[in-house]
Amino acid sequence: MPGGGALLKAPSGSTRVAAVIGDPIAHSLSPAMHNAAFQALGLDWIYTAFRVPRGRGAAAVEAMRVLDLAGMSVTMPHKADVATAVDTLGPVSAKLGVVNTVSWSAGTPGVLVGESTDGAGFLDAVADEGFDVRGARCVVFGSGGAARAVCDAASRAGAARLVVVARNVVDGESCATLAGPTASAVSGADRGVVEAAVREADLVVNATPVGMETGSDTPMDVVEEWFAPHQLVVDLVYHPASTQFMRIAAAGGARSTNGLGMLIHQARRQVEMWTGESPPTEVLVRAANEAILGTIRESR
After folding, report:
1. Same domain, yes or no, for 161 and 251?
2. Which residues does residue 115 pair with via DSSP β-bridges, in sequence order?
3. In this predicted model, what pLDDT tens digit does every residue of 40-52 receive, in sequence order?
4. Catalytic one among 34, 78, 79, 269?
5. Given pLDDT bands bounded at 50, 70 and 90, which one contains residue 297?
6. Does residue 7 lie within any of the structural domains?
7. Residue 250 near residue 242 (C-beta atoms within 8 A)
8. CATH number for the domain harbouring residue 213
9. Active site residue 79
10. Global model pTM greater than 0.85
11. Domain range enclosing 271
12. What b-and-e string marks burial along 37-63, b requiring 16 or more CB atoms within 10 Å of the CB?
């Protein structure tokens, strides 16, 4: 099967159109993944990317109504704005206050529903690694949108304990409340407490963007002695594919993986919500990897 989201046929007047909005958006992997998914399912759908400036997320929702877009993916900086512009929120988005997926209601014509597939995508990704979050002790670095999605998902999956490591403890506590009474927040400046939490953890997640530019930075000065073979370490950064955080964890014996699996599974779940059909995961994996390789070639 051709990669890169090649279309089955030229678009026509009956072709359904879906899109992702964000800023910046030029290097999004979503068009490659979603178009490959539509092709694999034999659907007359296409997917594109729209750069929507900050503050115009609500306007993009109105444009979805006017243009009758079949579905919309939402990335930064619009997830919170879109949550206030849709007609109703799914249970996860209602709790998080953010939306990454907009769909038409199946039961009520003309109603737009906002939901988040990020947390479920994260759980799918760690399950691919053979890890069961139920009963796990978790540490999450970060308190932003990605961290909130992970904390909420881990709580729903039955994590035994969760520690949020944040620069701003108030933000960390807000994030930790999503996981209930078994969660707590600590300052990243309290190195001894952070070290103890990481050493005791089964799952350690970097949910900050630190390391995205070069892969050489870490959310704090972690060392390999903090990690052990029983742990799974996930860095939600996926480009570069290997970050310093992952390399340090691996040197300590932990299994480590990046955020590409989460990105792929959240996209697969979006397609399911829009079309009622589930695309093969391997199709999205291949499309994402080919798109990343293309980006690397362009940058050289």
Report:
1. yes
2. 101
3. 999 999 999 999 9
4. 79
5. low
6. no
7. no
8. 3.40.50.720
9. yes
10. yes
11. 16-116+261-299
12. bbbbbebebbbebeebeeebbeebbeb
